[in-house]
Design goal:
Blueprint: E1 9-19, E2 22-30, E3 36-37, E4 58-59, H1 68-77, E5 105-108, E6 111-114, E7 121-126, E8 129-136, E9 141-144, E10 157-161, E11 175-184, E12 198-202, E13 228-233, E14 248-253, H2 257-260, E15 274-277, E16 294-299, E17 302-312, E18 322-326, H3 331-336
Antiparallel strand pairs: 1-2, 3-17, 4-11, 5-6, 7-8, 7-10, 8-9, 9-12, 10-11, 11-12, 13-14, 13-16, 15-18, 16-17, 17-18
């Protein structure tokens, strides 16, 4: 998943090479500022990728292009190769509840962990390698960060549900789906990560049960300032560390945008479409590998997805909270692009 990077400057050596359908960019330090999302490179190499209700929509079905390099260019530029499909609402939807966590426990190494506690949690794999997180919001779509899919071939993306320990097979009965369509927000900016939000339509409908459930969409218009946010993911537990094999969670305080603009980011880098969460002194944070995953808030007994892990400056650095996409700015956009799905 993508993770925030230091306000370090990079001279882009533009060492651009293609392997397994992905473009990589290596850089060395120099004098321009860059901010990097919290995703990890889905390859065997330890190369880090650079990383409303507005009706913007972008169908990035760039897989129709035959040339892999052109696929990447088309994705970055937002070029579409297919028209937006007509979405037919389902005739019937089964009754279900969103945002209800599971409480099945198990003991590992003397510490109690929750297995499948967040039943909407999904991990994204590219050519079989974990690189980002996502959240199930209905029976056909997951919500993730735009930078997790920008320039990627949908045919190489796999979405896995009910995973807990990535290093152990058979611990849980996981569910796997391929991606039928990528819907990236048309106003996504790869320069400042504004509108860093995307939807993935699954190739098959999911059936909800006692284990698998979607997260609730957030209350419209609410700032969530002062709430505790719960971030979940398989990202690194410390800056420049290895990603976790088990699903982790961290609780961080949510700031108002005015507070966040008084942080080390200043007033210009935080847009109204962003949400900041973290301790002023650092301590806890999302990190590399958490990109695309959820920041939850608890509303009575249900959990809502208030944010999507987007970017930041390092991990858990003092005066640099984590930055998330503010989901309730996109309620109309999400609903209009998921009309063919059943919500709880």
């Amino acid at each position: 998943m993508t993770r925030r990077v230091n306000r370090t400057a990079y001279l882009i050596l533009e060492l651009v090479y293609h392997s397994q359908g992905i473009i990589y960019i290596n850089g060395t330090s120099i004098y321009t500022e860059v901010q990097i999302p919290r995703a990890i490179s889905p390859t065997a190499h330890s190369v880090q990728m650079f990383r409303d209700d507005s009706p913007g929509n972008n169908e990035t079905q760039i897989d129709k292009l035959n040339n892999p390099f052109l696929q990447w260019i088309a994705g970055v530029l937002g070029i579409t190769t297919t028209e937006k499909p007509i979405l037919t609402p389902p005739e019937t939807c089964d009754e279900c509840k969103c945002g209800i966590i599971n409480t099945k426990n198990r003991i590992v190494g003397g510490q109690e962990t929750q297995v499948n506690q967040y039943p909407w949690m999904a991990l994204l794999l590219y050519s079989g390698r974990f690189y980002c997180g996502a959240s199930l919001i209905n029976d056909r779509y997951v919500l993730t960060a735009a930078h997790c899919v920008n320039g990627f071939n949908k045919d190489r993306i796999t979405v896995r549900f009910l995973e807990h320990d990535r290093s152990t097979e058979g611990e849980t009965m996981t569910i796997t789906r391929k991606v039928k369509r990528i819907v990236r927000h048309a106003s996504y900016s790869s320069s400042n990560y504004d509108n860093d939000i995307a939807l993935l339509r699954l190739d098959e409908v999911l059936k909800f049960d006692n284990l698998l459930r979607p997260v609730c969409l957030p209350t419209p218009g609410k700032s969530f300032s002062g709430y505790d946010g719960i971030v979940t993911g398989w990202g690194a537990t410390q800056e420049n560390g290895d990603v976790s094999v088990t699903l982790m969670e961290v609780t961080v305080p949510i700031h108002s945008n005015s507070e966040c603009r008084q942080s080390g980011y200043g007033s210009s880098r935080i847009t109204n479409n962003m949400l900041c969460a973290g301790f002023k002194e650092g301590q806890k944070d999302s990190c590399q590998g958490d990109s695309g995953g959820p920041l939850h808030v608890k509303n009575d007994t249900e959990y809502q997805i208030a944010g999507v892990v987007s970017w930041g400056e390092g991990c858990a650095k003092p005066n640099y909270p984590g930055v998330y996409t503010r989901v309730n700015r996109y309620g109309t956009w999400i609903r209009s692009n998921t009309k063919d799905a059943c919500y709880c």
